[in-house]
């Protein structure tokens, strides 16, 4: 009987990190486009825009990495760990 592969899915840390970085990247991009540029403080560089672009790209890379190479959960190892945990569980 063939078992279906189970992946970590949303609980893969790469998804969480990638999503947070992408969200903050979008926020910084919007701030860079619509907010006061503050060029005098940054040497005429739009720091929010550039930091947002970098964060968005890195976030997309993390999400793509998690999608292309998902973490496969070995059900036998999980079952053994649960059995061992139940065996050592003192009530």
Characteristic terms for this protein:
single chain, 91 residues, mainly alpha, two-stranded antiparallel ribbon, elongated
- SS-based class: mainly alpha
Helical element count?
Answer: 4
Helix content: 55-70%
The order of strands across the largest sheet is 1-2
Oligomer: single chain
Q: Roughly what is the average pLDDT, rounded to an integer? A: 85
Number of separate strands: 2
The total tally of domains equals 1
Question: What would you report as the Rg, rounded to the nearest angstrom?
Answer: 21 Å
Strand content: under 5%
Largest sheet: 2 strands, antiparallel
- N-to-C series of helices and strands: EHHHEH
Task: Please write out the topology.
Elements: E1 6-7, H1 13-34, H2 39-42, H3 47-68, E2 72-73, H4 75-88
Antiparallel strand pairs: 1-2
Helix pairs in contact: 1-3
Protein described:
- With 91 residues, this protein is mainly alpha-helical.
- It has one domain.
- It is 68% helix and 4% strand.
- The chain has a two-stranded antiparallel sheet with strand order 1-2.
- α1 runs antiparallel to α3.
- The radius of gyration is 21 Å and the shape is elongated.
Short description:
With 91 residues, the chain is mainly alpha-helical.
